[in-house]
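Sample 1 of the test manifest.
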Amino acid sequence: METVDLARLQFALTAGAHFLFVALTLGLATLVAVVQTRATLTGSPVHMRMTRFWGQLYIINYAMGIVTGLVMEFQLGLSWSGLTEYAGNVFGSALAIEALVAFFIESTFLGLWIFGWNKLNRWAHLALIWIVTLTAYASAFWIMIANGFLQNPVGHVVDGGTLRLVDFGAMVANPAAQVAFWHVMGGAMITGGFFMAGVSAYHLRKRTAEQDFFRKSLRLGIGVALPATFVTATFGGISFDTMQPTKIAAWVGSAERLAEAQAEMVARLGPGDYLPPVEWVRGGGLTMVILLVVMLLVAAASCVLMAFRPVVRGFRLWHWLLTAMIPVPFVTVIAGWIFREMGRQPWAVYGLLKTADAMSSVTETQMRFSIIAFASVFSVLILINYWLLARHARRGPDAVALGDRPIDTPSAPALSF
Amino acid sequence: MEIFILAFFALGYLVLAGADIGVGMTLPYLGRSGAERREVIAAIAPFFLGNEVWLVATAGVLAGLFPELEGELLAGNYSVVVVLLLGWIVRDMGLWLRGRVPGRRWAGFWDGAIVAGSWGLALSWGLLLSHVLLGIQGPVALLPALVVAALFATHGLTFAALRLRGVLRERAAVLSGGSGGPVEARTYTLTTGALVAVGVLAGLRLPLHPGTSGSLLVPVILVLIPLLVAAQGWVWWTFRHRVTGPSYL
């Protein structure tokens, strides 16, 4: 492999890993915020326990999202300084706003939410989870603005060999970004909803004593996942109007559409190969569409079934199916991401900067070192975190450490001053 | 103004996160048993998320306001930055995971990850700063890097002395020449000053040529800064008292 292929593989592995955790974070944060609102408003103990149980799983997942996200942010300057030097004055603004408006607040307040449990006023504590959730959405929004610019550059001029931002409004209103944002948000809600429903179904299948707890959770999970599949499908459909002609040609896959798209690009930009890898684009796109239909059917059927209490208690085949569905949204979002990003190739900034020209001047040895180091550390950590997620999900609400006692109260007689 | 914004976030990171990195480095010295180490970690637990985000913000400011420098600094120090990130990941995971499974071996392993990750972070900061500040790279740079790492460790101790109680506090105050609120605060101010000085001197050596989106971004960021500081202030205020027992981690 050439250095640029290694750099692409490294970016793909870290971005893909990051996306897996982020999708669940966005979905679960929303669900936890909804449950905590109910708990705070009504003082209902079951909702408070639900907040702690799902909140704990959310935090385990979130931690992995942070560390993969750090590598994402720094990797742009590390491996792709050709891109940041060329286009950083435009899409860098979206990244700066993301870091400052969204992530800074999200992270600060998440720490306060976790460690301030039983220490802060309950309304303040509720406000924190909502701020964390909304800033997580804002984070996704600004990242999609940056990505949307790379897919469909708008609001810039070419000035002295680099890009300059002239119309911030146009960059934000970019349809390639706006439509994708809602599509991705829908996908995240599906992921969170199926996760909550699948874990609940596991406990119901095991004849848990926590019937009320997991019935409510299952209903909430499906109740969010079903409308989310409609939102995702709708915006996914609209997004075909904002797509690059080469990506659409690869998706259709017919020789004449491909030749047509290639000829169009040659006429615009001169000789070159402008087609994305067709198998990846079609494979990713088809997987995404088929699995979305599967999720739609399962969510719709579950929505009917969950209305009947004896079914929720005893229909074990359905419980098993819902638990088996937990990984499906993850596979779907990765497939959709492959479709979108492979379909952009060979461009880093569509029509302006090729991926091969976007790289930093990094040696092959350096690239091999970093990809091996990141890949091995992340694969170990991802396995451990998924194992922990499963372990804590299986153990149920009684084993939750989050908020289980007032923090900072002496657990032993005060030490001498 | 762009330079002020970059300095604000970079120096904020060095001072705030420098303390939690330093506590991680000195964890085996401060906490001799599992229970002690858990209490030492409670000194930084509520802060480390809000501290490390200053570096995320610094990287965001680089991406938005100094895109050229971002590439030069990161790609130009590729391997050091990669090690820095690995240290950061390992340290954070140590903090998150140490309490997830009961048992001494599990906690001990992840405590090791906290210590190794913190040292990795501090030493790679040392290497990065040596390159920027003194222009030296390679094995020779380990010498100044060790000095920087020692500064992080000392800063961690002075912070721990302000947060802990009893015997843990006495251990942390070993370099302060005696414990007692005012002495501890003075020593913390001293290490803070040293870190700021290193940061400012390194900053002065950087080619600080802002990009072209300052006219848009600078006002936005200036409006945001008070909000961000207020958010952090809420955390500092909530956890202003000395640690009295283990926290969630």
